Amino acid sequence: MKIYMGIDPGYSGAIAVVDENGALVDLQRLKDTEHDVADFVSSHQLGTELAILEKVNAMPRQGVSSTFKFGTSYGFCRGLLVCHRVRFEVCTPGKWQRAMGCLSKGDKNVTKAAAQRLFPREKVVHATADAMLLAEYARRLVQEGRLL
After folding, report:
1. Mean pLDDT score of the chain, rounded to an integer?
2. Can you give the CATH number for the domain in which 81 is found?
């Protein structure tokens, strides 16, 4: 079975996996240990057609320490995809949110509501919503034959 991965980097982010029918297969919070996150990616590497890693930047008024932690998490996620040979694309929030019809302008409630509509049987929280939407975005890109 083909699967698709979405990664919302950052301490409060997550990795989501959906199958070719758009059903949620698995979730991993990034606040867990690095070994747990690495094991998660490893366990899904073989079936993954495409992963979308959200392209992130420092945010206005964000402190130096939190910016460094955010960048470290992004680099860690990117490194996991490379070392596990998972095909991935990097995508800005504006691009995937526009495609998924949930341009949030920073309001996490917008993406949470969109994820809940797409996955009505799942418990969607702020920490997992973007990853779930990114995974679905990856699935749609591949199935529609359009990549970034």
Report:
1. 92
2. 3.30.420.10
